[in-house]
Amino acid sequence: MAQAKVFKVILSICLVVFSFPGFADVLINAKDGLFNQTERFAAVAEMEKNLAKAFEKVCEDTFCEGDYSVIKHIALNCFINGDTAMVDSCHWDFAGSYAYADGKFIIKDAQVFQCVLKPEMNIMELARQVNDASGKRMVNPYKVLKTQINARGETIYDGLSDCL
Known about the structure:
With 164 residues, the protein is of the alpha+beta class. It has one domain (26-163). It contains 5 helices and 4 strands.
């Protein structure tokens, strides 16, 4: 019984706080708890899975030819306007490493990369475009990464190229 009262109080506070006009300017992670809508969560989770899979398929021939021959997806977090769900930025985190032996010594290095993408659209539109480009079996991973994210014609691939 006491738990129900505490829950009602917390819910009331949340409703009051989030009804203030300034809430529209609050950025939230598109995957976060209290603000999550089931449809949005599923779409964003599917988008992250599809982008990670596409990256893995193209990495060897593109991004993984440089200093770091192994680059792996860690996480994708898109931050959105709490009211409109317009994307402020997406931060795609990767870990890169290399290791080799020169006869006497083992030489290795690792680095974390955080690629910032600036889509100019609603998170659901971004997720729809990426997920539609993926299809059921992701025949063409380049199509997924070439998803246009703003009116300037920039793509996800462009953002990764600038970062990695």
